Amino acid sequence: MSLESPNNDAYAKGAAYVGETNPGMEDALRARYEHVLPGLARDLVELNGRTYTRGVVDAKTRELATIAALTAQGGQTRPQLKIHVAAARKLGLSREEICEIIYQMSLYGGMPAMFNALNGALEVFQAEEGDT
């Protein structure tokens, strides 16, 4: 999609999803990257609208799949993993469900990747406790 002709339907769906799971994401991305990659923030919201809102599987399942993939990829994905753990919690997934999926990824990404992801998840859970 070009900047001149965005997919407005995908953008609207993405904006709604991001608003529920990661409020402020578009603004944060725009503030950080707009000067070097104009349109990146909007493109990512639109991509979320094309992928996370497709139906077939529910949002919780998509977030668990994302957490699994990010865990298996290892430590370089920790910032993104924390974002998706927080999104999964906002969608109603329990700490136990999230930790179980992270643990299962020890078979595919190794124990160091699993511990890194688990520590990232614990940071999200601790931040939740600070919010209450």
From TrEMBL:
All residue ranges annotated as the Carboxymuconolactone decarboxylase-like domain in the record: 38-120
Species the sequence originates in: Primorskyibacter sedentarius
PANTHER family: 4-CARBOXYMUCONOLACTONE DECARBOXYLASE FAMILY PROTEIN, GAMMA-CARBOXYMUCONOLACTONE DECARBOXYLASE
Top-rank taxon: Bacteria
Name assigned to this protein: 4-carboxymuconolactone decarboxylase
GO molecular function, one term: peroxiredoxin activity
